[in-house]
Amino acid sequence: MSYDYNKENHSTTVSDVKQLGTFAALASLSYVFWIVGGMEMVERLAYYGVKAVAALYATDSQADGGLGVTASTFGTILAIWALVQTFVPVVTGGLSDRLGYKETIFMSTVFKIIGYLIMALFPTAWGFGVGAVVLAFGTGIFKPGIQGTLVKATNRENSSMAWGVFYQTVNIGGFLGPIVAAMLRQMDWAYVFYACAAIISLNFLLLLAYKEPGKEERIAYSAKVKSGEIKQESLFTDSLRELANPILIWYLVLFSAFWFMFNALFDVLPLHLRDWVDTSAIVTTLFGEGGTQNSFFIRLLGMTDDGKLILPEGLLNWNAGLIMLTCFLFAGLSARLRAVDSMMIGTFLASAALCWLGNVSWGWYAGFGILVFSVGEMMSSPKSSEFIGNIAPPQKKAMYLGFTQLPIGIGWTLEAKIGPWMYGEYASKEKFSRELLVERGMEPSQVEAIKNGEAFDTLVSYTGESAQALTQLLHSTHNVAFMWYIMAAVGFASVVGMFFYGRWLKTKAKEEAQEIAQTNPS
C-alpha cells in the first residue's frame, strides 16, 4: 500500500492505493526510470568507493598512507560532511523543481569531481575535510533531481516496485565501489579518489540520453508565474509552509532517530570489523587453510592481496551485495504492507542486528548480522522515500524529496560525531592497547609518543604475544558491545514511535474516506 495526493485541494492525504503485482510493476517502468537508475548507480559506485573506506583511511597510520587521526577527529570531519550533504537538498530540492532536473544533475557532477580530486591532491586531514564538504555539496544537489525524476516517471500503482528497484541499482554501485576501493587502496590511497572522479564523470554521458519528465508542464507553469497568472511564493516561504504539515513533522522526528541508528553501520562498523572480527574463518571455509590466490575472488570479496583475510569493506559489502540481488523481491513484499508497517518492521530488524554485531567476533556471525541489517534496510529505507514522494504535490516532488534529507541530516550529523567518539571511548583497540602497554610496564611518555594507528602493533612487539591472543584479551576485558546497544536503543525507540504514527495515519485515512463518501455519495 502507498499514499496518494489530493490534486483538487492540493493537500496531502493518506488514502491507500493498491499496487501492481511484482512482474506487472517491473514491466511498467519507463525508459527514463532506467536512465536515472543508471546515473544513481554510477554516482553511488564512486561515492561508496570513498565512503566505505573513509574511516579506515582517516585512522590508518601515516606510515601506511593514511591520515593518522583519531576516531574523534574523523567524527568531526564526518559530522560536517553529513551536515552539508543532508541540509543542502532542503534548499536545492525546490530549486530543482524550478530550474530543471537535468541542469542541477549536471552541476552536481562537476562539484563531485572537484571533491574527489581535492581528496587525492591534498592527503591531509584538512584536504580530506575540504574535499568531503565539496563532495557533500555536489551530492546534496544531485539527490533531489534524480529522485524527483523517479517520482514523475512512475505512477501510483508501481511506486513501491520503482523505489525498490531504484534502491537495488543504488546498491549495485554500492557493492562495486568498495571492491574498487579495496583493490586500489592497497596500492595507494590516492588511486581511490582519482578512480572515483573518473567514474562519476560517466554521468555526463548518461545525461545525453536523459529527458526530464514533465518538463513541458514545468516550463508552462514557470511561464504563468512570470506572466503573473500564478503568484509564486519565495522558495524559503514555500518550503516552510510545506514543512508545517503534521505528517511531515512527525516523519522528520521519527526518521531522525532511524538515521542515527542506520548510519552507524557504515561510519563505525568498519572500525569494529577491523579491530575485533576475525574473517579468516570465512576464507578457510570457502578456500581452505591457505586461502586463495585467485585474483577474481580476491577482488570480488574485498580480500587482502595475499588472499587470507577479508578486509572490513569487503565484509561490509555483503550489505550492498544482498540488496543488489534481492531488493526487488522485498519491494514486492513491502508493496503488500502499509508504508509505516514496512518501515517499522525494517527498523526493528536493523536495530536488532546492531545488538548482534556488537557481541560477535567470528567472521561468519558478523556476516549474518550484516545480512539481517540489510533485510531491515530494504524494508524501511526505500519505503520512506516512496512515502514522501507519494504525498508530495505535483509541482513539489523534488522539494519534498529534499525534505527527506532533513531527518538524514539530523540523525547522521549527530551519529557522525557521537558514533566515532563513542567507539574511541568504549570500543577502540587503539585506546585499549595504549592502556595495556602502560599496565605491562611501558612508560606513559613512551606510549603517548606512539603515532595514532600504531599502538596495537607496538603492543604485539613489546609483549611478544600473538596478535590473536592480545585481541581476545582486549575484547574479553572490555564491554565492546556497549556502544552498539546505545545505537540499537535509538532504533528501537523509533520503532515504538512508528507504531503510534501508523495508528494516527490509519485514523486519519478513515476520516478522509468518510469525508470523501459524504462529498461524493454516488
Textual characterization of the structure:
The protein is mostly helical. The chain folds into two domains: 26-221 and 238-427 and 478-519, Up-down Bundle (Growth Hormone, Chain: A), CATH 1.20.1250; 434-476, no CATH class. The chain has helices at residues 22-27, 31-51, 54-59, 71-99, 101-121, 125-152, 159-185, 189-200, 203-208, 215-227, 235-243, 246-267, 269-276, 280-287, 295-300, 312-316, 318-334, 339-357, 363-391, 397-403, 405-426, 429-439, 444-449, 455-463, 467-476, 482-519, and strands spanning 2-6, 11-17. It has a two-stranded antiparallel ribbon with strand order 1-2. Helix 6 packs across helix 20 and helix 7 crosses helix 19. The longest helix has 38 residues, at 482-519.
CATH architecture of the largest domain: Up-down Bundle
Computed Rg: 24 Å
Mean pLDDT: 83
The main pleated sheet reads as:
2 strands, antiparallel
Structural class by secondary-structure content: mainly alpha
Q: First CA to last CA: what distance? A: 25 Å
- Strand proportion, as a percent range, falls in under 5%
What fold name stands as the CATH topology of the largest domain? Growth Hormone, Chain: A
* Tertiary shape: globular
Question: How many beta-strand elements?
Answer: 2
The helix count comes to 26
How many domains, as an integer? Answer: 2
CATH class of the largest domain: Mainly Alpha
Give the SSE order as H and E letters.
Answer: EEHHHHHHHHHHHHHHHHHHHHHHHHHH
Q: In a few lines, what is going on in this structure?
A:
By secondary structure, the chain is an all-alpha fold.
